[in-house]
Amino acid sequence: MTARERRTRILQMLQLLPILSVLVILFGGALVMALLQSLGFAPWFGINTFPDFSHFGSLWGSQTFWVSLWLTLYYATVSTLLALVFGTILALALIKAFPGKWLYKYLYKLPLMIPYTVGIALAVIMLSSGGVLSRIVAFAGLIDDPGQFPQILKTHYGWGIIAVYVWKQTPFITLAVYAVLLGIGRETEEAAAILGARRGAIFFRVTLPQILPGIVSSTLICFAFNVGAFEAPFILGGGFPDTLPVVAWRYFNDADYTLQLQGMATVVSIGIVAGVILFAYLWVYRRYERRMGRH
Amino acid sequence: MTQVRLNSVRKQFGNFVAIENLDLDISSGELVALLGPSGCGKTTTLRMISGLERPSNGAILFNGKDVSEQAVQDRNVGMVFQRYALFPHMTVEKNVAFGPSVRGESKAEIARRLDEILEVVQLTPFRTRFPAQLSGGQMQRVAVARTLITKPSILMMDEPLANLDTKLRVEMRRFIRDLQQRLGITTIFVTHDQIEAMELADRVAVIFDGHLAQYDTPERIYRYPRSLDVADFMGATNIYPGKVLSRNRVSTALGEIDCLHQDDRSVGESVQVLLRAEALDMSTGPFTSEGSGMRGRIKARDFFGASVTYRVACNDQEIDVTENARRMRDVGDDVHLQIAPEQVWLLSG
């Protein structure tokens, strides 16, 4: 290596330093600390039983943990899938020319700028029993009293949670898929139509494989967020058994601070589950890409 | 074999009129070029014939049958896009087999036709490659094969030679011509390049601003353009205002020039006189025969390899003369220019 090459190498390292320090110290450090605590290392609470797997043991040994895990994955998966379907349809529509498109292009992005908590508040106002929707239905005479309105929020079906996630994430997926669609242009679809392909064949055989990178990256981000998010299931969820992030929050807030270790074990469990699922997802996608000849 | 007819076709996008009352007749098996500057409406015309756009007015007929309202999938046409529009996620064979596969052909039939067509376009060794691994010429051949395998009644091409380098152009031109003649398929292509149009087409439709300016054989369009715009677009440089002196003589700033007998022009009428640069004979000797003789001096010389173009000053005017490069003349030489009467073309105005 010449002196000149060494200099550029050092310069590159210096340029990478800010982001590396954030990643290593803040993220990596926190991860290591969480792992250590979940394994019984917390001298600042006067606890040091490291390595101690009992926190994981008691967590994974209880039936409610598995229910919580199921609820967490159920809300995350259903809302990601719904947002994906709506977002893709919206993106496909936005590619076409129609009157008032410019207005639509602003409107659909609105939820992106509104915080989740505001979305949750909107869900409470609109969807709760006694909310706007129930009153409208009662006013229309479909039910006698707003109280008879079917319960949407605070059930384990999680319609409220799903509604908020889908409302917030549909524009996000639209944005990602729309950008990819703009990049690939309309020509391959037109070529397919001339070759005799109908709408369905065009979408599944020509468009979808080309927008897949956008779909994978945007659903990855949404799913990861949905697994770890806590406000929506906390406010709109059906109560015990809660989703894992809410369970972790309850442990952290418990008067018995030693339960923080149990909370850490919960957090680490969320991390493991999310990590395994996301890596499996990426692995399947990579295999598909390789089969398509992309490297 | 399909004959195509456009009956006063009009296309409007919002307030913009792309095509205004276009009438066009394309015989079956003919190779026709739609030629014009970018934005003249030629691609829109092609897209209307293919069914990707619907005409705002007028009708498109295939073999006398109105197909204006027919969906693109049902027209059985083929289109080779300018940038080929290959499916990037499919191999060459998947790309080519796409048409028959979505039309529900049997696997055995697809395999048979695939082998055959890959042989025709000489892409058999590349069948498992992806478009990104091919050269421009190979991609174009894939696009052609992908279209031909569906046995289209009309083949359409958008700027077929535009993206290729000089050597490949010659190769592809021959390939397209041979293929078209062998299959006898009605072919329409769009180009903004007059050379490309002349190289390939049986007939050329020149389109300006959504109007058909002239529709004729390449030779006639080149030699006998119907308007100044067409002459200009076909690369004519020597156009001079003149006056008809008699039925077969015009006067211009260059001098008096003999032309063929003009039945439809009256004496004294103002005309534009077109003298093709390569139709002028240049000599340094004395006049060899009676006819249009002009005296001039070479001011500049442009060497193009096979040919040379001289700029000659003549009676305070400038005139371009193109000669075979076998013999070179020098700047400053005094020359005589002559042109045969049948090479002189008069335009109105």
Can you walk me through this structure?
The complex is a heterodimer of chains A (295) and B (349). Chain A has helices at residues 3-38, 54-61, 63-95, 101-107, 110-113, 116-127, 132-139, 159-184, 187-194, 199-228, 231-236, 244-252, 259-291, and strands at 41-42, 47-48. Chain A folds into two domains: 1-30; 39-291, MetI-like fold (Orthogonal Bundle), CATH 1.10.3720. By secondary structure, chain A is mostly helical. In chain A, helix 1 crosses helix 13. The model of chain A has no long low-confidence stretch (mean pLDDT 90). With 349 residues, chain B is of the alpha+beta class. Chain B has two domains: 4-233, P-loop containing nucleotide triphosphate hydrolases (Rossmann fold), CATH 3.40.50; 239-348, Nucleic acid-binding proteins (OB fold (Dihydrolipoamide Acetyltransferase, E2P)), CATH 2.40.50.140. Chain B has a six-stranded mixed sheet, with helices on both faces. A five-stranded antiparallel sheet of chain B has the order 13-12-11-14-20, with no helix packed on it. Chain B has a five-stranded antiparallel sheet with strand order 15-19-16-17-18, with no helix packed on it. In chain B, strand 7 (154-158), helix 5 (166-183) and strand 8 form a beta-alpha-beta unit. The model of chain B has no long low-confidence stretch (mean pLDDT 90). Chain A binds chain B through residues 187-188, 190-198, 201, 205-206, 209-210, 292-294, and chain B through 50-52, 72-73, 76-79, 81, 83, 85-91, 98-99, 102-103, 130, 146-147, 150.
Give the ordered list of helices and strands of chain A.
HEEHHHHHHHHHHHH
Mean pLDDT of chain B: 90
SS strand fraction of chain B: 35-45%
Structural domain tally of chain B = 2
Please name the CATH topology of the largest domain in chain A: MetI-like fold
Any idea what the radius of gyration of chain A is? 24 Å
Mean model confidence by pLDDT of chain A: 90
Task: Give the number of DSSP strands of chain B.
Answer: 20
